[in-house]
Design a protein that fits this description.
3 copies of one chain form a homotrimer. Chain A is of the alpha/beta class. The first copy, chain A, folds into 3 domains: 87 residues, Udp-n-acetylmuramoylalanyl-d-glutamate--2,6- Diaminopimelate Ligase, Chain: A, domain 1, CATH 3.40.1390; 186 residues, Hexapeptide repeat proteins (UDP N-Acetylglucosamine Acyltransferase, domain 1, 3 Solenoid); 31 residues. Chain A contains 5 helices and 37 strands. In chain A, a hairpin with a 5-residue loop joins strand 19 and strand 20. The radius of gyration of chain A is 24 Å and the shape is flat. Chains in contact: A-B, A-C, B-C. Chains A and C meet through strand 35, strand 36, helix 4 and helix 5 of A and strand 8, strand 11, strand 37, helix 4 and helix 5 of C. Strand 37 of chain B pairs antiparallel with strand 36 of chain C.
């Protein structure tokens, strides 16, 4: 909890409004309440600013006239946001063994596990050796953690979840703001990860926590090994994702989707229900109709590929050339 | 060990034959013996059913007349199979430290290792810190496990094997059956992983156990970091696979193959001996002749790629159009 | 420290020169000093041989006349090099807890950490649970290791570095020499990893140590989750690399580059400053001009892709055919 005046000092901002109000957390512009701070970058998000219920908004002076609440004026809004996130990041207990406040119920806990403050574990849970569960994690009933798993602070794991070795849940998202010198400033990720019921997660998969809101894996989802789920991704109910796929930040995947192995899905996309993506494809646009989609280069003998790839890089020129030739012939 | 009658109850099947026979395990139709259960889905596998020596077969009523042995009739065969696997899955001991029944020989074992029941370790083995070896694992002579490795129950590691940190061997395969409501049911993987002699495995690589039979990495294989080897894959002698490659279930790779980094190989394929796959290619068909194969999109300045990719998605239409134009001109 | 005569015995080489000289380490031909051993393969590297200051060189007899120093003559130079590296590999202490010689300063060290001989840790460092730090590692001030991390012998981590769970730093590189029987012989990697200041590294990322010199991650770099950084790679200042990307051995990436997710970069390349690579592209050549580069197959409905991919594999033939047709029409 900081006053707006304190926050202004932390990020070197000018307050327009009431420096004395108390800010308890940070949220996105569209959902922030009057005790929360938000930020708005660019004219594109002007309407979100106008409608915002936030207690205060970090913004450029150009957007000041549209700000319906207290403002913190800075030059580099995203950088100021990155800096202030660290003041709201919860510290974790670095400890040995099981914290006395943890409610481990009848869980079977194998050797060398570390379980943090205020962890709550349901009925009939198994926690394999060398697993780390940080503060404030909730784990449902009948969930099985194989071994060597890390669940970072504040994440929620449902009932009947199965987690393979080497999985990391709640790691920091990959969000960075650049300063004038071209240096990156890390955003502290304040959201968490929510794993629904009846989910299984394969070996060495990593699921990042959300920036402000939570990354979500809905009921019945199947995740294979070595998958990357970035911050704020939502994977819809009963979807299945094969190994080594990576999904970038804030993408939303519908229900009952089947994503092949080694697929790359870029950030901020929407993929509707019942979509099938062929293995190794890249998804670089929204998908609004169910069905199967593919985008891969077929395998060829290397010698053949060398010839084809030469023409490929000139495809636009060749087609234009052929069209002109045809036109000339016709004339 | 269950009677066929018990199994029928577990999966809600109708027995045609002798409910009293004892079933001790599950195996594929082609190798199952008379104390084993198998399953057959679809007319495609009718011949395997006719030849099967299994004690009992889970099947649809349409295949009943071709069943040479006891039958368990269900509507959704694969789902029934998924459910019954869990009854044959071995429980592991969740413990602290080294189980008294483990034969660790003269192994150097560093801090915080957990070693399960009936583990057998050969001569001159080193086991780095925070490593977990589950029940019934066998490790050969002179093998070196760096640190933070998980080897799950029943796996076999040969002589002179080198394993880097973060490796997971014997994780559950990615096999799931769908029910009528579109929910996934996990298959418990009853096979294991067999790693031959003189193998090296890179950091954070994951090797899944087989569904019924074993995943196999043959002698002399080299695996780099962050590789995914799915259930029932076989990697032939002296093959080398570079980092971040993923091989889907049941694919068999020959001897002396060299697979580049970030290659994707889809499931149920056969790749013959002495094949070289260029980095980042996808292998989507069997390869029956030795040689080098590639399938990648060449890198271009982004602006150029945008033009090329536009034509690419219309390639079939353009070629048809050009052919018609040419034909018209000729006439 | 071995005499050249001893080394000749280890790798079954013929000495031409002084068998009595002492060799203390191995280095690349261009930087090796007179107490160091190097190797040269092929006429392509003849000039490096002629200029070498090394105490001795492993080579074929064909290059002997160009050798300015002591020579070790073998048939298979790369195999002899692979074998001799193991004699210069440092052994690590396999222990329990914190070695008495480690200088841990005021570091907060959570449960089940293992810290090796002669480790030096700066001020205000946090080391999360189940982390392993091998002998001779140096860690700077204010560095934060989340949990379950492995840092292998001799690596250096700078100030203000943030490392996510599951990261492996200093794993063996993927370097292997083939013998006459087609068996691989592992090269022991004698270099290490140097991580600069203000670097962040995402979950389950692996960074291999260098073969002879060091793998380097320069100041201000951002690495996302599940990234593979191979031996001897250099990532320049303030570059950012998104998740699941893999960079092969000895590639040098400039400053302020932004590499998308799931990009593959082949080995021994140079990428200049200020390059942006689109997600999922492959970089298969040097890049000498700043700018954005892409090489991906666009996503299509599967049915459309099947038609396009058919033409793609015949692209060279079709274009040749169309050109001939056009020419014939003209004549």
């Amino acid at each position: 909890m900081y006053t707006l005046g304190q926050i202004a000092e932390f990020i070197d901002a000018k307050v327009v409004g009431d420096s004395a109000i108390q800010i308890d957390s940070i949220a996105s512009a569209t959902i922030a309440k009057n005790t929360q701070l938000t930020y708005v970058v660019g004219q594109k998000h002007k309407q979100e600013l106008i409608n915002s219920q936030a207690g205060a908004v970090i913004l450029n002076k150009e957007l000041l006239e549209d700000c319906p609440t207290n403002a913190l004026i800075v030059n580099n809004v995203y950088l100021a946001f990155a800096k202030i996130t660290h003041y709201f990041k919860k510290q974790v207990t670095h400890q040995i063994g099981i914290h006395p406040s943890a409610k481990t119920n009848n869980a079977k806990i194998a050797g060398n596990c570390v379980i943090g403050k205020n962890v709550v574990i349901g009925n009939n849970v198994t926690i394999g050796a060398n697993t780390i569960i940080e503060d404030n994690v909730n784990i449902g009933d009948n969930t099985y953690l194989q071994a060597n798993i890390v669940i970072l602070q504040g994440c929620t794991i449902g009932n009947n979840v199965f987690i393979s070795p080497g999985v990391v849940i709640g790691s920091e998202g990959f969000g960075n703001a650049k300063d004038d010198q071209g240096h990156w400033h890390t955003i502290a990720h304040l959201g968490s990860v929510i794993i629904g019921n009846d989910v299984s997660i394969g070996a060495n998969t990593a699921i990042d926590r959300g920036t402000l809101e939570d990354t979500q894996i809905h009921n019945g989802v199947r995740l294979d090994n070595l998958i990357q789920i970035a911050h704020n991704v939502i994977v819809g109910k009963d979807s299945a994702i094969a190994a080594s796929t990576a999904i970038a930040g804030s993408t939303v995947i519908g229900k009952r989707c089947m994503i092949g192995g080694m697929v790359g899905i870029i950030g901020h996309l929407n993929i509707c229900n019942d979509v099938v993506i062929g293995g190794k494809s890249i998804v670089d646009r929204n998908i609004t109709s169910p069905g199967m989609y593919t985008g891969i280069m077929p395998l060829m003998p290397h010698r053949q590929w060398k010839k084809v790839s030469l023409w490929l890089t000139k495809l636009d020129k060749i087609i234009t050339y052929l069209n002109i030739k045809l036109k000339n012939l016709k004339d």
